[in-house]
Design a protein that fits this description.
Number of strands: 2
Number of helices: 0
Helix content: under 10%
Order of helices and strands: EE
């Protein structure tokens, strides 16, 4: 339904790898967890990454727009 049911904001790699130090085409691993609310309705939910400027709160665009899909989680009844 295009609404956020959970979100987690964090610096890349738990703050150890600020974007200013990234090289072109470099892959930065970030193991971040998120909790799905207990009252989430059953169904499939998209997992996406949004990168934004923390000073201006402006979402940065990728080839997919401002939301970069990375997977899906299914909530069972």
């Amino acid at each position: 339904a295009d609404r956020v049911i959970a979100q987690r904001d964090s610096e890349p790699a738990s703050g150890a790898r600020p974007t200013l130090g990234w090289g072109a085409q470099e892959i930065v691993q970030d193991d971040a967890g998120i909790f799905v609310p207990r009252d989430a309705a059953p169904g499939a939910y998209q997992i996406a990454v949004v990168v934004y400027n923390s000073q201006t709160m402006e979402d940065l665009k990728s080839a997919w727009g401002t939301l970069t899909p990375i997977g899906e989680v299914r909530v069972e009844p």
